[in-house]
Amino acid sequence: MVTVFSVVKKASQNTARRLAILLATLCLPGLPAAAQPTETGDFRAPDLVELVRLDPSIHLDIRYATSNNFTGRKLYAEARAFLQRPAAEALVRANRALKPHGYGLLIFDGYRPWSVTKLFWEATPPDKHKFVADPQKGSRHNRGCAIDVGLYQPRTGKEVAMPSAFDEMSDRAAADYQGGTTEQRRTRALLRQALEKEGFKVNPDEWWHFDYQDWRLYRVLDLPFFAIHASPRAPDAGPP
Ligand SMILES: [Zn+2]
Asked: CA-CA distance, 225 to 13, in Å (whole number)?
């Protein structure tokens, strides 16, 4: 015989089970992409260098330190850019090679803490996920070996127009996109040649993103900028 008590008890058990499922769903929205990747093996010790300390003629437009980025949120407390030392030194050489052509490097982003990559993934619709790194694998930015970079004109200080805007999630962002003006394609090619000559490789989906050849030697990091120790200054870096 089914008593009132047993009906109430059964109902409350069902409710409790449903609540447990609901809470699990609510508490773990990023499942299964929530955890920083565990990496085993030998890696080089991180040696993140602030780019403008190596070469003050490298300019910064760190969009993630403003709300002018695809998330519409300010994600970095400080507008700074770092790379692992060999990548930073290669970038400085590329910047020097561009000078006689009348251009300098304009940095949008360098080393990026892993937790920011996770935020990007969650803020991006699934059909645009090719434009952001899967946090389960980590980004080469998290290893301090990827750079988002355009050009500026030292004469005017202005950004040089490319076939798409930085972080534009469209076909125009592709490194081999054939639209835009002849001049935009020329400056895009100049940027790519200067960086690829120094060991960087362009991302086919993003003309501005370049991976440094040694990225596999560095592990994914989640270090905030303020925790990166000041690196020794280059002899010709000028006053801090
Ligand atoms: Zn990038």
From this structure: 49
Identify whether 30 is part of a domain.
no
Q: Let me know the angle formed at the C-alpha of 132 by 38 and 201, rounded to the nearest 5 degrees.
A: 90
Residue 148, domain extent: 46-227
- In the reported structure, the alpha carbon of residue 202 is separated from the centroid of ligand 1 by a whole-number distance in angstroms of 10
Q: What's this model's pTM, rounded to 2 decimal places?
A: 0.81
Distance of alpha carbon 115 from alpha carbon 121, whole angstroms = 10
* CATH code of the domain covering residue 101: 3.30.1380.10
Q: What is the average pLDDT value for the chain, to the nearest integer?
A: 86
Helix or strand holding residue 7 (H, E): helix 4-27
Report the number of distinct structural domains present in the chain. 1
Q: Is residue 34 part of a domain?
A: no
Query: Mean per-residue pLDDT for 131-160?
Result: 96
Q: Please, which residues have CB less than 5 A from ligand 1, an ion?
A: 148, 209
